[in-house]
Write a structure and sequence with these properties.
Distance between the termini: 31 Å
Number of helices: 7
Largest sheet: 5 strands, mixed
Strand content: 15-25%
Number of strands: 8
Radius of gyration: 18 Å
Oligomer: single chain
């Protein structure tokens, strides 16, 4: 289910982008690079904590769009099952991968469903403040008490030995305040911290209509299933 479309057929009137608000920096950078101005509909990052809630949001949003919108570009992957059993009523284009981390780790044109390495915890520009492991620890302790919350946190992140900031070029991952914020989270997880090269290539191709084997183009009436995706190394592991 892949295709390519002329760049000028994707307009503000007939196309929208669906994006988690944690990806807005990268969506904006992709549109700037490709010279597009497609409207963006934002999904709250918190919906990822419950894929069924994200699925409901996606379903309701698709059905609420104007009939003039003929193409929906999803700036996300399968996202833990968020697209499962959704029947689309217009063309929907989704990168053929598991989640946003694999999206930003992709630097070439070969379809790879999951690029995350076991034991590696990845960070991007939005994984700070209330979206950080540090905030997750605080929430656990508030809910269960310090001792139990800390134990849950340790078990959850126990498999991670390496932390890596994804350098996509769309944000300043060398900024001192960003690095300090991420370092604090890495220290809590007890993993080292470094960099990994990524890119904004997938989103640039998405918004410019260059839909090759890295994308799934679903026609109206199709019911999306996990089996439509080639998730590579296995189903994605959502963080928190």
């Amino acid at each position: 289910m892949s295709a390519a479309v002329p760049h000028n057929t994707l307009t503000r009137e007939n196309t929208v982008i669906l994006a988690c608000n944690s990806m807005l920096t990268h969506v904006k950078a992709a549109q700037t690079a490709m010279g597009t101005e497609i409207p963006v509909l934002e999904a709250a990052w918190e919906l990822h904590q419950q894929p069924e809630q994200m699925r409901l949001y996606l379903q309701q949003t698709l059905h609420s769009l104007s009939p003039a919108v003929t193409t929906v570009l999803a700036a996300m992957g399968f996202c833990g099952g968020a697209w499962e059993r959704i029947t689309v009523d217009r063309q929907v284009v989704i990168p053929n991968l598991d989640d946003c981390y694999t999206m930003l780790l992709q630097t070439g044109d070969r379809q790879i469903g999951n690029l995350k390495q076991p034991g590696h915890l990845y960070f991007r520009d939005s994984d700070t403040a209330e979206r950080s492991p540090r905030a997750f620890l605080r929430q656990l302790c508030e809910r269960y008490g310090t001792e139990v919350g800390t134990a849950i946190f340790g078990a959850y992140f126990g498999e991670y030995a390496h932390g890596e900031m994804i350098d996509t070029g769309a944000y300043d991952c060398w900024d001192e305040s960003f690095v300090a914020d991420v370092q604090e989270s890495a220290d809590l997880v007890r993993c080292d911290l470094g960099y990994v090269t990524g890119s904004n290539r997938i989103l640039e191709k998405l918004v410019s209509g260059r839909w090759d084997a890295q994308f799934l183009v679903f026609p109206p009436g199709h019911t999306i299933q996990e089996t439509d995706f080639s998730l590579g190394n296995g189903a994605p592991r959502l963080l928190y």
